[in-house]
């Protein structure tokens, strides 16, 4: 009777919900400051914070999180962005501008976040080396255990 192979691996290293929430809060601050007092420093700080998250995700081998990151960022920034727009442009005009920023503008923001975070995460993952998995363990039908 032939044996079968059981692969024992650990695919991920750690949870990323804490750093993802911190990044989303930082991006909410960057976006609100960008609405209230626009400058080129806002764009650079947003790129830097996104690159840091990408490096963390790549080091932890959690590059799939890149696709959910803009949604988490939107959850944290939607209401403050509308309020900041209302403070900056007046109640009614600011409300409609804020809703426009949150809906239509978020397409560009989410696309750029996916690009920056994803590129950095994949680059760090590639540069960090190959897989560091445990060796393959095979178990024979007669319950003998060996290593290959």
What does the model show?
The longest helix is centred in the C-terminal third of the chain and has 23 residues, at 105-127. With 148 residues, the chain is mostly helical. The protein contains 5 helices and 3 strands. A hairpin with a 5-residue loop joins β2 (137-139) and β3. α1 (17-36) packs parallel to α3 and α3 (69-89) packs across α5 (105-127). The model has no long low-confidence stretch (mean pLDDT 83). The chain has one domain (17-129). It is 66% helix and 6% strand. Strands 1-2-3 form a 3-stranded antiparallel sheet, with no helix packed on it.
Write the layout of secondary structure elements.
Layout: E1 4-6, H1 17-36, H2 40-59, H3 69-89, H4 91-103, H5 105-127, E2 137-139, E3 145-147
Helix pairs in contact: 1-2, 1-3, 2-5, 3-4, 3-5
Quickly list its features.
3 strands; 3-stranded antiparallel beta sheet; 5 helices; 148 residues; elongated; 6% strand; mainly alpha
Question: What's a concise summary of this model?
Answer:
This protein is mainly alpha-helical and 148 residues long. The chain is built from five helices and three strands, in the order βαααααββ.
């Amino acid at each position: 009777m032939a044996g079968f192979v059981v692969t024992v691996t650990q695919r991920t290293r750690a949870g990323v919900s804490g750093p993802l929430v911190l990044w989303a809060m930082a991006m909410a601050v960057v976006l609100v400051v960008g609405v209230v007092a626009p400058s080129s420093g806002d764009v650079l700080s947003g790129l830097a914070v996104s690159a840091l998250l990408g490096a963390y995700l790549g080091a932890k081998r959690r590059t799939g999180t890149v696709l959910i990151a803009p949604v988490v960022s939107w959850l944290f920034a939607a209401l403050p962005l509308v309020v900041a727009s209302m403070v900056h442009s007046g109640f009614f005009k600011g409300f409609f501008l804020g809703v426009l920023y949150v809906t239509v503008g978020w397409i560009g923001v989410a696309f750029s976040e996916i690009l920056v975070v994803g590129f950095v995460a994949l680059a760090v993952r590639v540069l960090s080396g190959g897989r560091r998995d445990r060796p393959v363990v095979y178990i024979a039908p007669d319950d003998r255990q060996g290593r290959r």
